[in-house]
Amino acid sequence: MVSISVIILTFNEELHIQRCIEKVKTLTDQIFVVDSFSSDRTIQIASSLGAMVVQNKWPGNQAVQFNWALDHLDINTEWILRLDADEYLTDQMITEINERLLKIESPVNGIFLNRKLIFMGRLIKYGVDKVKILRIFRKNTARYSQTWMDEHLVLSGGETITLDSYFVDDNLNTITNWTEKHNDYAIREAINMLDDRLKLLNESNTLTLQQNKKSFYAKMPMFLRGFAYFVYRYIIKLGFLDGKEGFIRHFLQGFWYRTLVDAKLLEIQKACGDDKTKIKEYLKQHYKIEL
């Protein structure tokens, strides 16, 4: 086996964790599950499959939790792979990692993976740009940026490559679960947008291409931009070709979610204006978020 460890963050993921671990077990036996005190069978399932399970109280976002894992897990492999519990590696990707990882030499420290999305049981082929994400990195060469939403790995140095195969994001939970989760995401996205404008947080991060696109989006008029984004995804990017599932996905994620973010921004603006102290107090009081 290649010298690679896998880190999976979990909270009540009994629906997904077995699929995720069983796939990745063919790549490595160094599987770490960092659990935020799940109340379901996540821990029992992961342990029964041979994963090393540790628990840490949820710190508020994935970036802090993953960086905690990097600091506290006993990782002795050359490479680290980060996966979500509702994701899994395809057989083609496992084969490619096995074949290529042994041949990669410095200065390559990071590897981008292509992602395919399954929504309501259907592969979503249209409406979105091709997604590749930095998910494999040499030990001690990357950490997660400290943002409230769209956390991403940042390499401390070196070069990157992209694999040809892909992993799959296939969440099996209900639409109710999806909307509840994205309601939580919306306030985090709003905090990110406020931080871009008012510098609420102490850390600043180098803009990625995706963040530059969001900077353009942020300059568009509130509420109109969500509608424009839906039209872009559903019409211009041919999202309508993915049938009913495609419409639901692009409407909810492209329009409903973006409008919800703007609604939360307007709510905060009406209550606090641009007063950073008031905004922080408002977030603490109404959303239990401390900046």
UniProtKB/TrEMBL annotation:
Record's signal peptide: none
Pfam families, A to Z: Glycos_transf_2
Glycosyltransferase 2-like domain boundaries: 5-143
InterPro entries recorded: Glyco_trans_2-like, Nucleotide-diphossugar_trans
Keyword tags: Transferase
One term of GO molecular function: transferase activity
Keyword Transferase: yes
This protein's record includes keyword Transferase: yes
Family: Belongs to the glycosyltransferase 2 family. WaaE/KdtX subfamily.
The protein, known as: Glycosyltransferase family 2 protein
Organism: Pedobacter changchengzhani
